[in-house]
Amino acid sequence: MNRIYNRYLVVYISLIIDIIYSFKYSQKGVTAIEYAIVVGCVAVSTVAIFSDNGQVMTMLTGIFDKTRDKIIALL
User: Is the Cβ–Cβ distance between 34 and 27 less than 8 Å?
Assistant: First the structure.
């Protein structure tokens, strides 16, 4: 009976070691974290660019104001 128990124990320990090894070297969580960081950076950049005082908003406001003034001058 003791020999059977020892064999089960060896198999069980080897399975646990394999699970720990695969968890340690798994890249799935790292990839998810990288995507989350990229999405966060894109969101912050978008808010910074398109906010009320952002460069793109200022540029677009200037273009539309000039276009409006030229149309009004033509009328």
Answer: no
Structure tokens at 44: 């912050």
Q: How far apart are CA 27 and CA 10, in angstroms?
A: 28
For residues 8 and 69, give the distance between their C-alpha atoms in angstroms, rounded to a whole number. Answer: 85
* 64 within 8 A of 57, measured Cβ to Cβ: no
Query: Angle at Cα 58 formed by Cα 51 and Cα 41, nearest 5°?
Result: 35
Give the model confidence (pLDDT) of 8-54 as tens digits.
Answer: 778 888 888 888 878 777 766 677 788 889 998 998 888 777 777 77
Quote the Cα angle for 22-27-33, to 5°: 135
CA dihedral of 61, 62, 68, 73, whole degrees rounded to 10: 160
